[in-house]
Amino acid sequence: QVQLMESGGGLVQPGGSLRLSCKASGNIFAINTLGWYRQTPGAQRELVGTVSGSGSRTYGDSMEGRFTISRENDVVYLQMNSLMPEDTAVYFCHGNIQSRAWPRNFRDYWGQGTQVTVSS
């Protein structure tokens, strides 16, 4: 089995910063991309950013600038600066990962989500 474990969410004041971490673990053969999505109640999950094994980054609309994604092997980080109340959401870690179990297809895995609340 493959697991993605997030940490680092919480309550922060507007203008503050938070750093989220997510570690992929388990029966992993290879990792393609790791990244972050976020979701608010009643809305679709939206892309924050992803990073490939080679370090190539992709950001969602309006995410680049205040949000920086980085990766060290099987851990992906999301540095969030100048946070605003509209950044309040559940942030989900995502991985496109190849398990050691057959069939060895790349498939998408999700973490449980971590709540980020931006409020004074």
Strand share of the residues? over 45%
Count of alpha and pi helical runs: 0
Structural class: mainly beta
Percent of residues in helices comes to under 10%
- How widely separated are the two ends? 40 Å
Rg to the nearest angstrom? 14 Å
Order of helices and strands: EEEEEEEEEEE
Uncertain regions spanning at least 5 consecutive residues? none
Number of strands: 11
Mean pLDDT: 96
Major sheet details: 7 strands, mixed
Shape: elongated
Structure in a nutshell:
With 120 residues, this protein is an all-beta fold.
Write the layout of secondary structure elements.
Elements lengths: L1 E6 L2 E3 L5 E9 L1 E12 L6 E7 L4 E3 L7 E6 L2 E6 L8 E11 L6 E5 L3 E5 L2
Parallel strand pairs: 2-11
Antiparallel strand pairs: 1-3, 3-8, 4-5, 4-9, 5-6, 7-8, 9-10, 9-11
Give a description of the structure:
With 120 residues, this protein is an all-beta fold. It has no helices and eleven strands. The chain has strands at residues 2-7, 10-12, 18-26, 28-39, 46-52, 57-59, 67-72, 75-80, 89-99, 106-110, 114-118. The strands form two sheets. Strands 2, 4, 5, 6, 9, 10 and 11 form a seven-stranded mixed β-sheet that branches. It has a four-stranded antiparallel β-sheet with strand order 1-3-8-7, with no helix packed on it. β5 (46-52) and β6 (57-59) form a beta hairpin. The chain is elongated, with a radius of gyration of 14 Å. The N and C termini lie far apart (40 Å). The mean pLDDT is 96.
